[in-house]
Design a protein that fits this description.
single chain, 604 residues, alpha+beta, 6-stranded mixed beta sheet, 22 helices, 18% strand
Length: 604
C-alpha cells in the first residue's frame, strides 16, 4: 500500500511539474484570456516605372470589427447609410461574421471589410453611439493611371492553401495573386507588427500589456522600380483598344521589358475594394477573356517571321549562302505545295527576307533537314530543333511573371507517333519552313527573338523589374544566352529586315508602311494562318539599325496581312519610344479608332 501511495503521489507531482514547468499550452491559454493581439498591417511597397513614375500606390481603407457581446441595439438604416451599404448587406454581414472559423461573441471578429476613407469619415463622427465596434486600418492598391493590369497583377485575400503553405499568413491577410504583385510578394508585402493589450473578462481593452514592451512595429514593403515605360505602355493600350492580341517591347541590350500589352485589357482598379469579387466574376465570364495574359500565355504560329530563323540555321549548316538564289512562280510546287504571293524573282537570301518568299524557305528548310551529313531525316530534324531552341523557342524564357508558357517546337518522337516511324520526311512537315504547322510561340518569345537578332546572337532573359529598394536583382537577368548561330550570319538577316521596311518602291518590300524618315527600322512581317477564321497579322522589328534600343513584336488576331495592322502599330510604338512624338497623326488616329472586334463580329 505504501508503494502504491508513493507511486500515485509521484505521478501527481510529475504531472503537476509537467503542466506548470514543461508544457506551455496552459500558459498560452491563460494569456489568451487576458491578452489581445492586434495586428499592425504594413503598407505594401510601391511599384514605379523605369523613370520613377508611380504605377501602383496605396490608399487607406478600414475594416470594422465587432465584439458581439458588447453590441447594443442601434439604428441599422443610419449605420448602413453612413457606410454606403444597404440594410440587407449589413444584416448579411452580421450573419456571416458569426459563421467565421473560431467565432466567439466575446472576441473581435471582422464584420465589414475595406470601407472607404470617405465612408469611414462619416461613421467615425458618430462611432461613440455604436458600442461593440472597433476599427482596423488597412491599405489597398491604387492604379493610376489604370494601365498594365496583366503585368502589375492584383492583390486578394489569402485562402486556406496560402495559409497552409506559409505560416506568415493568417486569415484576413492580403497576398499578390498575379503579375508583379505575385512574383515579388515577399518583397512588396513588408512585415506585420503587433500590439498587445490587456483585456477584462468581457474582452474589453484595459490598457497596453507591459507598457508596450513586447509590441512590434510593422515594416513597410520595399519599393520596386519596374522596367516598364508607363507612357509607352499607355500608348500601346490605346493603339490596341478594340483589338485582340499583344504587343511586347524589349530593350535588346538588357532584356528589360519596356511595354507588355495584352488586349483586351481591363482597369486594374476593378479588382480593388469591396466590389472585387463581383467584378472578377464579370471579367471571368467575358467571352473575350480580358483577364488572360496573351503576352506570355497565348500560343500562336509565328508565321513568316520564323523565316529569319530558318535562314540563320541554313547559313550555319552551310546549306545556303547569301548568294543562293531560288525562283518563285507563285509558290513551292513539290508535293501538296505551298502558295506564295507575287514578288520579284528569283531572289537571293537577303531579298527573300525583303519580299518574304515562301518558296525560298521551303528550299532552305528541306536543305537543312535532308543534309547528307546528318544521315537521316530524324537526325537532321534534331539538329534543326536544337538550333531553334537556342533562340528561346520551345522553352520558358523565365520572365519574372507567373504562368509563362514555353511554346511548342515539335520533336522526332511526336512525328513518329503521328505519322509512324519512318513515315514522314522534310516534305511532310514543310509548313515549318514558313512558321506554320505544329510550331507555336508566345508574343514574348517573338520579341525576344528579334532582340536576339538585334544583339547578333545573344539575349538576356526578359524581365519586368529593374531594381528593388535595398535589395539586388536576380543574377539570371544579367546572364547572356548565346545562340548556336555564329554572329557573322546575323548581318545578312539584318540587311534583309532593313530592306523589308526601307526598300525602294516596287522592290517587293513587305513592310514599307513601317518606315520612318529619321529612324532606320529593321523588321519582318508575317501573316499567320488561322484555321478558325481570318489570318493573324504579325510583325516584329528593332530600331535604330546601328544602335538598337527597342525590339518589338506585334500580334493582332484575325487582322489579315502583317503589313495591314501589326506593322503600323509596331512602327508607331517605336516612334513614340524613341522620339516621344508622332509624325503620322492620321495613321495614329486610324489605328486608334479602328474597331476590329466589330469587324470580327460581323464576319462571324
Amino acid at each position: 500500500m505504501s508503494v502504491i501511495i508513493l507511486l500515485v503521489f509521484a505521478a501527481i507531482v510529475g504531472k503537476l511539474f509537467y503542466i506548470q514547468v514543461i508544457d506551455s499550452s496552459y500558459k498560452f491559454s491563460a494569456a489568451n484570456n487576458v491578452l489581445r493581439y492586434i495586428t499592425q498591417y504594413p503598407a505594401r511597397g510601391l511599384i514605379l516605372d523605369r523613370h520613377g513614375v508611380p504605377m501602383v500606390s496605396n490608399k487607406p481603407v478600414f475594416d470594422i470589427l465587432m465584439v458581439k457581446r458588447q453590441v447594443r441595439p442601434f439604428d441599422t438604416l443610419e449605420f448602413a447609410t453612413m457606410l454606403g451599404l444597404t440594410v440587407d448587406q449589413v444584416r448579411d454581414a452580421f450573419f456571416q461574421a458569426t459563421k467565421q472559423k473560431g467565432y466567439s461573441p466575446r472576441k473581435a471578429v471582422v464584420l465589414l471589410k475595406q470601407i472607404s476613407a470617405e465612408n469611414f469619415a462619416r461613421f467615425q463622427e458618430v462611432m461613440y453611439k455604436y458600442q461593440g465596434f472597433e476599427i482596423q486600418p488597412r491599405t489597398v492598391r491604387s492604379y493610376n493611371p489604370p494601365i498594365a493590369a496583366h503585368l502589375l497583377g492584383y492583390v486578394g485575400e489569402v485562402d486556406e492553401r496560402d495559409i497552409k503553405n506559409n505560416t506568415y499568413y493568417q486569415q484576413g491577410d492580403y497576398i499578390g495573386i498575379s503579375g508583379i504583385e505575385r512574383s515579388y510578394e515577399h518583397i512588396l508585402r513588408g512585415k506585420k507588427g503587433v500590439k498587445i493589450f490587456m483585456v477584462d473578462v468581457h474582452n474589453r481593452i484595459k490598457g497596453s500589456y507591459e507598457q508596450g514592451k513586447f509590441d512590434t512595429v510593422a515594416v513597410p514593403g520595399k519599393n520596386i522600380i519596374s522596367t516598364i515605360d508607363a507612357k509607352l505602355q499607355e500608348y500601346g493600350e490605346r493603339l490596341m483598344q478594340n483589338k485582340i492580341g499583344s504587343i511586347v517591347a524589349i530593350e535588346p541590350k538588357t532584356g528589360e521589358v519596356l511595354a507588355m500589352i495584352s488586349s483586351p485589357t481591363y482597369d486594374p482598379n476593378l479588382l480593388v475594394g469591396r466590389q472585387r469579387a463581383a467584378n472578377f466574376r464579370v471579367l471571368q465570364q467575358d467571352s473575350l477573356k480580358p483577364i488572360f495574359n496573351r503576352s506570355i500565355m497565348a500560343l500562336y504560329p509565328p508565321g513568316s517571321t520564323f523565316k529569319v530563323v530558318n535562314a540563320l540555321i541554313g547559313l550555319q549548316e552551310g546549306v545556303v549562302t547569301p548568294e543562293t538564289r531560288y525562283s518563285c512562280y507563285g509558290g513551292y510546287t513539290v508535293g501538296r505545295g505551298v502558295g506564295c504571293h507575287i514578288h520579284p524573282s528569283p531572289t537571293n537570301l537577303i531579298q527573300s527576307i525583303q519580299v518574304s518568299c515562301n518558296t525560298y524557305y521551303c528550299h532552305v528548310f528541306r536543305n537543312i533537314i535532308d543534309k547528307r551529313e546528318f544521315g537521316s531525316v530524324e537526325n537532321g530534324f534534331t539538329v534543326w530543333k536544337k538550333h531553334v531552341e537556342s533562340f528561346g523557342y520551345g522553352n520558358k524564357l523565365n520572365i519574372d511573371l507567373p504562368h509563362e508558357l514555353k511554346g511548342i517546337v515539335p520533336s522526332v518522337s511526336f512525328y513518329d507517333k503521328y505519322f509512324r516511324k519512318g513515315g514522314w520526311s522534310s516534305l511532310t512537315i514543310i509548313s515549318l519552313a514558313i512558321g506554320q504547322g505544329e510550331l507555336s510561340v508566345t508574343p514574348l518569345q517573338m520579341a525576344n527573338l528579334v532582340a536576339t537578332i538585334a544583339n547578333k546572337g545573344y539575349y538576356i532573359a526578359p524581365h519586368v523589374v529593374k531594381s528593388i529598394e535595398g535589395d539586388t536583382l536576380n543574377s539570371l537577368y544579367r546572364e547572356k544566352h548565346i545562340t548556336s548561330i555564329e554572329p557573322k550570319y546575323f548581318d545578312y538577316i539584318i540587311e534583309g529586315m532593313d530592306l523589308a521596311v526601307n526598300g525602294a518602291p516596287g522592290s517587293g518590300s513587305t513592310a514599307r508602311i513601317a518606315a520612318l524618315p529619321d529612324i532606320r527600322i529593321c523588321g519582318k512581317t508575317g501573316t499567320a494562318q488561322n484555321p478558325h477564321g481570318k489570318d493573324h497579322s504579325v510583325f516584329f522589328a528593332f530600331a535604330p539599325k546601328d544602335d538598337p534600343k527597342i525590339a518589338i513584336s506585334a500580334y493582332i488576331e484575325n487582322a489579315g496581312f502583317g503589313a495591314t495592322w501589326a506593322a503600323p502599330i509596331a512602327s508607331l510604338m517605336i516612334e513614340k519610344y524613341l522620339k516621344d512624338s508622332i509624325s503620322r497623326p492620321d495613321l495614329e488616329r486610324y489605328i486608334i479608332d479602328a474597331n476590329l472586334l466589330d469587324r470580327r463580329a460581323k464576319a462571324k
